[in-house]
Amino acid sequence: MFESYPEVLSIEDLMKMLRIGRNKAYELVNSGQIPPFLTKPHRILKSKVIAYAEKQADQLMKFD
What we know:
The protein is mainly α. The chain has helices at residues 11-18, 22-30, 46-62; strands spanning 8-9, 44-45. The chain has one domain (8-62).
């Protein structure tokens, strides 16, 4: 699903991957829900984004 993205992502990559806006992307990173690999500029490991997405999907499945 996310094969076309690099292993280390920018905020813009995160926005595209999760189809979210800039404010939400920074909220997720700054809150630690998706921990940054580097800060200023923010860099995020793709594996952390995938783990976050899987966790969100699991939570949605619990309500079905």
